[in-house]
Amino acid sequence: MSIWGFRLVPWLNMKIVxxxxxxxxxxxxxxxxxxxxxxxxxxxxxxxxxTTVVLCGLAIGLVGNRCHAPxxxxxxxxxxxIELSLVVPFLRLGEAISGGPHFPLTSxxxxxxxxxxxxxxxxxxxxxxxxxxLIAAPLILGALYIILVPCFKLLVHKFSSMPSSPKKExxxxxxxx
Length: 177
Known about the structure:
The chain has 177 residues and is mostly helical.
């Protein structure tokens, strides 16, 4: 195994696996974990880099007790590499939906961006990427939720130290004498 791979495994364990196991062991509901993770990933792929943590915080504030805040933030962290890879597909989707001009991703366009000659084009492309994300976000959220519910049911059942939903003990009724 390479040195890079050797260092990657402990980092993944420390940053992703261990926090996930702590969340699962605390006895959260599988559906709540699935929704929170799906929400964190969906917001985590928002096409404007650097804004997802704030957006996740706003979502946690709006959704309240229906989501598990640490799961949302962990999923947002995990989604960062995916976010970078989806900017161009969101841009192209937004262009296709709006019928707007195609933003060229060439070295000439990059030079115009750096020199400030393409400020209107950049703004339009950002709006197209946002439109693409707005169209895709409900589909991403729904698909992830459907996929993650059985996964979290299995994980909670296997690793949780508490039952997933506390059951009320039924007290026997006292007999009338």
